Amino acid sequence: ILPIHIEVFNSETGDLQGIYDSNEKGSYLMILPAGKYEIIAEVPSKGTFTEKMNIGDRKSYQPEIIKDIRLNFVPKSSEQQ
What's the predicted TM-score (pTM) here? Predict the structure, then answer.
């Protein structure tokens, strides 16, 4: 399991909401208020993954949202030889 560095931005303001790093099991925990976010996950020297996420207000509250992110990297042509 590779370490993942995650940055979360508020999609409406562009403000950085938080920075997270996965633990040795590849897990991480975020606590976010209601809003729209862009999540950028980076595996150093391998690549990035970007996803938009909408956290609902109290009417659509979910105590926990589990997001399983699996990254598959294709080697660059120079790495394939």
Answer: 0.72
